[in-house]
User: Which sequence fits this backbone?
């Protein structure tokens, strides 16, 4: 089958917001006297923010705000930090323009909550490139479960076998492969040589390197 649909992740692929999540989570946890450290992030890796604060409330109970209220505070904080300090990563706009010119359907499938996605892609001026925006809010399971990619493809009326996923993380890569989609990974420098990324169909240093020949070659 020919690839006719491209699904983008957001954090770490479109925008360099990944490191800011840790700052927001630590800052808000400290405000509520929740004993969270960077080391303890491992306990909730891959969970969505509402699942993270639910987990904290069971493992490290606090008084005052509910886990939902703490999650919303973290979201407000990360959105604010991202607008002030985030940026669109190299090659993003170029890749989106290339896909539009070649009549690809373009989706955004992220584990971040919908209000964060909408707010940030509007702020950074890239919302108009996406035909569909799907958040893991809309499905039961976050990545590495494939639900968010399958939901996005279905919304675009695309067969999973016609889709390629662009991802920066291992969980995202696993989710794309589990959805029976082709996967191109763009890992950050620190994780670039992780041997697990060899499971992807292709690996790029930056979205600057995405071209039509690559998409055709993995079709």
Assistant:
């Amino acid at each position: 089958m020919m690839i006719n649909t491209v699904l983008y992740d957001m954090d770490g692929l479109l925008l360099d917001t990944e490191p800011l999540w840790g700052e927001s989570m630590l800052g808000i946890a400290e405000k509520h006297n929740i004993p969270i450290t960077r080391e303890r992030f491992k306990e909730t890796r891959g969970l969505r923010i509402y699942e993270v604060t639910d987990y904290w409330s069971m493992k490290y109970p606090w008084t005052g705000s509910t886990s939902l209220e703490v999650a919303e505070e973290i979201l407000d904080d990360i959105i604010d930090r991202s607008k002030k300090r985030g940026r669109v990563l190299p090659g993003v706009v170029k890749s989106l323009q290339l896909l539009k010119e070649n009549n690809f359907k373009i989706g955004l499938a992220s584990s971040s909550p919908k209000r964060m996605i909408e707010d940030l892609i509007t702020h950074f001026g890239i919302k108009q490139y996406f035909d569909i925006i799907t958040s893991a809010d809309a499905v039961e399971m976050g990545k590495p479960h494939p639900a968010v990619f399958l939901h996005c493809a279905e919304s675009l009326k695309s067969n999973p076998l016609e889709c390629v996923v662009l991802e920066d993380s291992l969980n995202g890569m696993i989710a794309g492969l589990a959805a029976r989609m082709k996967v191109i990974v763009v890992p950050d420098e620190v994780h670039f040589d992780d041997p697990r990324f060899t499971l992807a169909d292709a690996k790029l240093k930056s979205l600057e390197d995405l071209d039509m020949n690559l998409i055709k070659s993995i079709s």
The chain has a mean pLDDT of 96. The longest strand covers residues 105-110. The first helix runs from residue 18 to 31. The chain has two domains: 5-16+87-218, 18-85.
